Amino acid sequence: xxxxxxxxxxxxxxxxxxxxxxxxxxxxxxxxxxxxxxxxxxxxxxxxxxxxxxxxxxxxxxxxxxxxxxxxxxxxxxxxxxxxxxxxxxxxxxxxxxxxx
Length: 101
Fold this sequence. Notes:
By secondary structure, the chain is an alpha/beta fold. It has helices at residues 11-16, 32-47, 62-67, 94-100, and strands at residues 4-5, 22-27, 52-57, 75-80, 83-89.
């Protein structure tokens, strides 16, 4: 599955009402660690068919970042049944993201 781009208009349907767990990456184009994490996020999207992998550009959707208290990026949040279940802040290895699941 490819990485889905989340906006305030599709957030509720794609993330909160998802029948699968959702791994949501809060990022920005100017963020070096975010750019380093991007290939890992893409790998997870390709490998994890039982999880939706999504991204939120915090410059384009500051309200979503604020809503979930994202103070540093990259921040990766796991949602299950519309609720936050786990969170990772900063550049982490793929294994740490897999452990979130």
